[in-house]
Amino acid sequence: MSKNKLFRKKSIDQILLDSQKGGSGLARVLGVRDLVSLGIAAIVGAGIFSTIGLASYNGGPAISLLFLFVAFACVFTALSYAQFASAVPVSGSAYTYAYVSFGELFAWIIGWALVLEYAVSNMVVAISWSQYFVSMLEGFGLIVPKWLTMAPAYALDAYEKMQLVGIDNLEGIERVALQAYETAPRIGGIPIIFDLPAGLITAFVTWLVYIGIKESRRASNFMVMVKIGVILAVIFGGIFFVKPENWSPFAPNGMEGVLSGVAAVFFAFIGFDSISTTAEESKNPQRDLPRAMIYCLLICAVLYVCITLVLTGMVNYSALNVKDPLAYVFSYVGFDHMAGIVSVTSVIAITSALLVFQLAQPRIWMTMSRDGLLWKKFATIHPKYKTPSFATIVTGLVVAVPALFFKMDFFVDLTSVGTFFAFIMVCGGVLYMDHAGLSSKAKFRVPYINGKYIVGIGFFVGLFLVYKYGAPLVALSNGEVGNALLHNSLIFIFWATWFVLSIMSFRFNFSLLPVIGILINLYLMSELGASNWIIFVIWLLIGLAVYFAYGYRHSKLNNSPIEDPTEAP
């Protein structure tokens, strides 16, 4: 096996040629407004309508600062994505960008990680949609059997807790789960429990994405208008119920409580890169993609911070650990009509997020298939609908089946690990583009600030601040040795990476903003739990097995007799 073949890079010219060969088959119908709409649809989804409650419960009102910090972190990554999107306007997103920068093996790893970002995050969105949908039906007096509305693990956990502490000590959500366990039909004594609405909405959205990008665009634009309307209504309507005393204490659980919400908060922002997967359906991708990424990120950051402050001002943070926080706060203050409106419109709003992620995943698989790394069937374009038909159907199955049976919180953290990894590779890719002279091909470039001295000075200042004010690097929490060791090793990797980047910035005059993007994403990665990292590593090992079993042997680039001009000697 040739090492050079594993790390062969595709030139930008070759990627553009491959995408245009015979016509990509995709319809170019999206303008900048449509792209911004798709970005908002992806970002303002399950994060703001569901996971924001848990994040606020853990971090208190200070979670608004975490939203601000994560948005700040995403800006550096978004700028890097924007430069790549203007230089390589094809549908592969970070997968294609890694192919240009780091070679085929890294491209495959990123493509495999993106399955976690898109397919797995869509499972979260589908489960969240189900919760709001069931709540909406109950508001109209329609009761769905509890065993048809949740993952079996919720019901089993509630049953086991009831046996330990008694039914009187169960919370409201746990009592519903216990009801599901007790009323579920049984086969061989095993209760049959699954989340039917999550499966059904995934099937519907998959059908919508299958029949065409125009139909998806119309549906997305409509749902985004509804979504923004209800969020503005919550913000401006909720202001009248804000009690400033609810903002005190601002960070009741300290920085630890705030940072515990990193995964949930970051999950709320991951959708901005989904815009890049529609490059081959954009009218003017090199101009419009960068604009759309920045616009939608700024808009959504403002909305998130405002709505977090309103929620934590209306009710005490300790009451926000609920499935539908936006509807709950209005019920809490006695404004039931508004709670009902929020529930109905939330169903529409979350559907739009589901649609965009379901739109993105097939297009990445299509691009990987076009390169020979996946079965060629994934590149099939429907002759009538002009969509990657086979890849869309497979995405629907990959999302729908787990959404029927798994808990939402399992997926949130797991999604974030894969996303951080992809973001770091994209920021690093911009540094490669600058060094290799490829940035000249981009119509949009990350603003250049010479990091020659700044990165190194920042490294020593950071070490001093940690030494002076920071907590000890090695600390065990409740005897959790495994978690502590993993966390400390990740912190070490963070500082080691910063040190290496300091040296390389001095030698090669690296652009400061992509370096900041790498460091912020790497730091946020270190705050995720050990179990998520273990599962992510297992996922990558499975991906490598698939690559060496199929992708390496069928790669069009590696089987080409012509040497790639961008390949490093």
From TrEMBL:
Transmembrane helix found in the keyword field: yes
Keywords per UniProt: Membrane, Transmembrane, Transmembrane helix, Transport
Record's keyword annotation contains Metal-binding: no
Sequence ranges assigned to domain Cationic amino acid transporter C-terminal in this UniProt record: 512-555
Transmembrane domains' residue ranges: 35-57, 63-82, 187-210, 222-242, 254-272, 292-317, 337-360, 390-408, 414-433, 453-470, 482-501, 508-524, 530-550
Gene3D superfamilies in the cross-refs: Amino acid/polyamine transporter I
Alphabetical list of Pfam families matching this protein: AA_permease_2, AA_permease_C
Compartment(s): Membrane
Superkingdom, taxonomy of origin: Bacteria
Coiled-coil blocks: none
Membrane-topology descriptor: Multi-pass membrane protein
Protein name: Amino acid permease
Source organism per UniProt: Sphingobacterium corticis
